[in-house]
Write a structure and sequence with these properties.
231 residues, globular, 11 strands, alpha/beta, 6-stranded mixed β-sheet
């Protein structure tokens, strides 16, 4: 089965196509706030590079967040529309799972952290399993210093990964037993999305397009500013 993966929860937007042999093609660009204009050409390019026609796809995987509202909405809406048009099932994966997955060989507790703007981060903790990771805490949003306090309570060495870790690096650097991951892993990857979706597809963990629900965790920035503004 060939799977198209669409990822757009942070400042990076991208897609990848893969199957039993792994990722066949991927296109990813880090250009904040340009997701809507970039995604459709990326999908076309990925199909061409993989030598795949859209009607050959067997499923569409999508990053459902948490993440930045506008980019996340673009990716999820595009994925649902394509799945409907192609009449194929979907595989939802969270952005924090995608951050943690490339770190699966670390042997440490993985702390996935996404910059949520407004002085907050989306985050979750993961443990390493053979060939993968296991989420230890549910995705949450809050100030980074609150996350640091939680990390200091929990035992074990930790690896912190994500653009949130990069932005608030002074809070994490110097903590005992804590290491920051390479900045090259700061964004969720469409390649990881396809690989994780492939494993779930083999277990037939599909959902219908109308069952997809983005994991926003809080109101959109524009709405929050409007509600909080006074006369």
């Amino acid at each position: 089965m060939l799977i198209l993966g669409i990822e757009s929860s942070t400042g990076r937007v991208g897609c990848a196509i893969g199957g039993h042999e792994g990722v066949r093609a991927s296109v990813q660009t880090t250009r904040d706030r340009r997701h809507a204009e970039l995604l459709a050409p990326q999908i076309k390019t990925a199909c061409a590079n993989a030598g795949v026609a859209l009607d050959e796809l067997g499923a569409v995987a999508v990053d459902v967040g948490p993440g930045l509202y506008t980019g996340l909405r673009v990716g999820v809406t595009t994925a649902i529309t394509m799945a409907h048009a192609l009449r194929v099932p979907m595989v939802p994966v969270t952005s924090l799972d995608l951050l943690a997955y490339p770190m699966r060989h670390t042997g440490r507790i993985i702390v996935a952290v996404i910059d949520a703007r407004r002085g907050e981060v989306f985050h979750a903790l993961y443990g390493c399993l053979p060939g993968g990771v296991q989420r230890l805490t549910e995705p949450a949003v809050g100030p980074p210093d609150r996350l640091v306090s939680q990390m200091m309570i929990d035992e074990g060495d930790k690896l912190v990964v994500g653009d949130g870790a990069m932005r608030f690096s002074p809070l994490f650097e110097g903590l005992r037993g804590v290491e920051l991951a390479d900045p090259g892993f700061a964004h969720p990857s469409a390649d990881s999305l396809v690989l994780l979706a492939r494993a779930r597809a083999l277990r037939e963990e599909f959902v219908r397009p109308d069952e997809i629900r983005p994991l926003y965790l809080r109101r959109p920035d524009a709405q929050a500013k409007w509600v909080g503004s006074g006369p």
